[in-house]
Amino acid sequence: MNRWMSLLCDSIAIGLFALFARIAHQSADMPLTVQGWFFTWLPFLAGVFIAYLVVILPAKLPSERIRPAGLIVWALAVVVGLIIWGFNNGEVPHWSFMIVATTASAILLLGWRALVKVTMR
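The structure assignment produced for this chain is given below.
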């Protein structure tokens, strides 16, 4: 699998994460809309892109592997995403949101890599 396909899979995984978050937290103040989903997706997607630009592409890491590429993408997606979320909302994210964001993004970003590993055998 090439790095561009991995980037696409990571972008889709983070997009699903953002969609699930919007579905779980929809309310009158925060309805489920394409625009809302997009603005939830962008901060975490920025973390994915930073991981690729700063680490994955320059180091020529096998991007479909869980370690180290998947862990790097996951860590940067969560950290950058939560920092941007905090700036956008003017507050530190609630600890429960940090736990859910970390766990759900791990399942999606590392999960597709695990499936690739199992199917490539």
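Interim note for the steering committee: The chain has a mean pLDDT of 94. Residues 3-120 form one domain.
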